[in-house]
Amino acid sequence: MSSPNEFQNELSKLIMSSRLVPNADLHSFRVDGCVPKAVVMPVSERELSELLAEAYRKEWAVVPRGSGHSLKVGNSPLKVDLVVGTTGLEQSIDYSPSDLTVTVGAGTRFHELQSNLAKGGHWLPIDPPLGPVRTIGGILATNLVGPLSFGYGTVRDYLLGLRVVGPDGTVTKNGGRVVKNVTGFDLTKLHIGALGTLGIILEANLKVMPLPKCDKTIFVNFDRWQTGIQTFMLQSLSSYNGQAVELIVGADGDVKGYIRFLGSESSVAARVEEAFKLLTSSVTNPPRIITEKQAMDVWDEIQNFGWGDYSENGDDVIIRIGCSPSKIGSVIKDMFDYCAQNRHPIEIIASPARGVFKCKLKGITSVLAETVTMFRKTTARFGGYAVVELAPVKAKKNIDVWGDPGLGIQLMRRLKEKLDPNGIFNVGRYVEGI
Amino acid sequence: MLHKCKFIKQSNICFSLIPSQEWVLNTHKLINELEGIVGKSSVIHHPDDLLVFAYDGLVDTGTPQAVVFPTSTEQVSKVLTLANSRNIPVTPRGAGTGLSGGAIAHAGGIELSLTRMSSILEIDPENRTALVEPGVVNLDLSTAASAHGLYFAPDPSSQRACTIGGNVAENSGGPHCLKYGVTTNHVLALEVVLEDGSVLWLGDAYRGRPGYDLVGALVGSEGMLGVFTKAIVSLLPSPESVRTLLAVFSDIDLASNAVSKVIASGLIPTAMEMMDALTIRAVEKAMNFGYPKDAGAILLIEVDGLEVEVIDAMEQIIEMCYDSGAAAVKHASESKDREMLWAGRKGALGALGALAPNYYLVDGVVPRSKLTDVLQKVSEIGEQYGLPIANVLHAGDGNLHPLIVFDERQKGKKEQAMEAGAKIVEICVNAGGTLTGEHGVGLEKKDFMPLVFNEEDISLMMKLKDTFAPTGLLNPGKMFPDGSSCADFRQINITGTAGLGSWI
Ligand SMILES: Cc1cc2nc3c(=O)[nH]c(=O)nc-3n(C[C@H](O)[C@H](O)[C@H](O)COP(=O)(O)OP(=O)(O)OC[C@H]3O[C@@H](n4cnc5c(N)ncnc54)[C@H](O)[C@@H]3O)c2cc1C
Hints:
The complex is a heterodimer.
Chain A: H1 4-14, E1 38-40, H2 45-58, E2 62-65, E3 82-85, E4 93-96, E5 101-105, H3 110-119, E6 122-123, H4 136-142, H5 149-152, E7 159-165, E8 171-175, H6 188-191, E9 200-207, E10 209-210, E11 214-223, H7 227-236, E12 244-249, E13 255-263, H8 265-282, E14 288-289, H9 292-303, E15 317-322, H10 328-341, E16 346-351, E17 356-361, H11 368-381, E18 385-390, H12 393-396, H13 409-419
Parallel strand pairs in A: 1-3, 2-3
Antiparallel strand pairs in A: 4-5, 5-9, 6-10, 7-8, 7-9, 11-13, 11-14, 12-13, 12-16, 15-17, 15-18, 16-17
Chain B: H1 13-16, H2 21-38, E1 43-44, H3 47-50, E2 66-68, H4 73-86, E3 90-93, E4 110-113, E5 120-124, E6 129-132, H5 138-145, E7 150-151, H6 164-170, H7 177-180, E8 187-193, E9 199-203, H8 214-218, E10 227-234, E11 236-237, E12 241-249, H9 252-264, E13 271-276, H10 277-287, E14 297-305, H11 307-323, E15 328-332, H12 335-346, H13 348-353, E16 358-361, E17 364-365, H14 371-385, E18 389-394, E19 399-406, H15 413-430, H16 449-452, H17 455-468, E20 490-491, H18 494-498
Parallel strand pairs in B: 2-4, 3-4
Antiparallel strand pairs in B: 1-2, 5-6, 6-10, 7-11, 8-9, 8-10, 12-14, 12-15, 13-14, 13-18, 16-19, 16-20, 17-19, 18-19
């Protein structure tokens, strides 16, 4: 493939020009600075399928795209010929309240799905960063999760079936639209968090949940890092009965704790009362319930931590760290001390019950590689991992954002070779260069 | 010759062929080598002893050359390495309670029983996880975890006998998975031995490590992708309070309506189980609970959680049952009384067994809203074939288990039962459902796969198989259609397999 023009000529034989994004706009579709040779927004599965079949033959490097918000996840691509969008596809939402299931096109925005479900008294209880504006396909492919995943699990727990188009244009389905299903191997899970390296998700069947009638948040102010926090964290997994438990550690070292309770009136009231009792006896500052508006803002802030105010020209780095819940206090402490020693300003939101926390670091792009190495060493001691969720493109060049995917890497490579033998999807963006 | 063939279609290979001298010599050698790995007392090879291992819950048979009982991952790895070097099929086996033939050594070879790897290695109450060997019996894990106020959520009705390894391989469900999900929602990491003997850990005690979700693909893989030698599973806190309700209705429609009402109200009970008239009559005859004679359906609903929310939910559910026309409602909160309410449901399989010498238990799933329609069609099938069909179902999930009762001594009845079963599966698929909700494909339903999946869908599954287990020696002949129907019936003595108190 040579120049964008020749490339586009070739494309125009395949697909109507109205599906092509004008050249002048290509820049705004770049992936980590890589400007694609063309951007196509197919309007039908057939168009998409035929386009891919050709891409496969010609070995064009294809980047699937939903809303585009999370294209900055992963390593920078080694090559981008074609960006293929899913939002132009006809999107339908087929919702069956009495079955608690919904079938939704991958290009559908999450907020659209939620408002549809709300009409029937349901929701998909997930809250990934920038969730509302992203597409279902993108949410599945990136598997970024939010605070509610403690109480409700992740999108993995709601996915019943998928239709996917493979690199050669073949459309396949797996799973189904019933809540219990063991018909054949479960391939659906392989696409979750796979960043579109195995196929482009076309449609998902999901299980939905009843909307909770009541939503309350308890707030505890810890002032500084103190022993009460350790207790708070240890109790978070088992004792509060909340759907989300989070800590925000500000750049000034102030620590705030939040517990969110969702459910029926009586259930929330009982759980809040119990948590109050527990907290009053274990932390110095008295816990209190915050207003609906305050709660909404704070959960928004936590959900979108690092993403809400992310600017490509800024120098924020967001690192996500996972380890077992009982170890998280020690790991946070180590990170904190390291950053203090090296004068790196750090903000943290931690979900002790999920065993995950995210750090926002500023001004470390020049030393990103060594910082990440140190983070990985520390977490590895506790059996954990560290992923660079967001970082300036320049800084990404010197690191592998994913880190060690564990012993399964050979199988992962083999799987990629089987499902995308010409390696056209998202070249180099995934773990270990997959 | 046995070990030269990759796929041997005949079951009962030892007896259906006159063994050649070469075969006998090779078997002898193989057994010596296996004994060298696991010890003499851990290999079974005498034809009489092998008979027991020719079955699982699906009375199709396939006799292995030998059954081995490894006690460590290392031994599993060595057995697989040996089998791989000789081209010998290996069938992993847990308790053998599977209902689709997954643990049957269909192609002969080695049966790899994991039942002697049955230690609960660690319960970590802080992180609410357990590290277990695959042979741990499902209920034993919950019993052990209860010391910490925790339990393992997936509760197949065979939980007194079935193993965690089998649960993982079948992605088993249970009556209580309506609220808590099936096995796949509770498995965090697996130690797996691949067919070439290599050992690896996949997943983590917490989800989120980057990379493909290989654990997700291994759960439900029916022993065809690898042998699980350890698992890290998540445990849930035992609920503060549990309440159970039993409601009697004059017909299935009314009971189904009640189910729909509960779902529409926004409550998610832990279980919603239903029995139809035939089942009720059989249970009543066997156990004398005093169910009304004209009862057309019984609904069992269970809720759990904090005391206040449970009381609240139960009140609403009672009202909804009466609103839907329930003739009688009983409920209980004490464990002893709750057990009483469950007893009829749990004894249903045994009670139905008294109706005729044989039955064929079908597992199908439909969207819950189609349940009434589908049950109607199932009863039409029964009429058409002149076969009684009893229904015991996980109504909340739309998972039905029609049980076709017949007497195989009557000519043609068995074939008719099989045909009726196939029709029922088709009805489920046509209603937007699928072949199996929890029992797996195995031998039983492999030829039905094309009802749901086209060639391309299946070929993608094959690619997953090629990724993990390219030689095809691991549990061969399962899941994928090969043109011959392997669906089979089973004898009533199935309860012997599942142990005391088994129920569907
Ligand atoms: C009375 C009765 C009631 C039942 N109720 C339910 C129910 O409510 N819900 C439900 O889902 N099922 C139910 N079942 C089916 C069965 O009990 C489950 O499928 C169970 O999980 C099988 O476990 P097992 O240890 O008996 O496995 P087996 O039957 O021995 O094996 C099942 C499959 O798992 C594979 N396997 C076993 N161990 C391993 C391992 N360590 N590594 C890799 N593969 C392995 C085997 O090769 C086979 O394919 C019921 C069965 C009976 C007889």
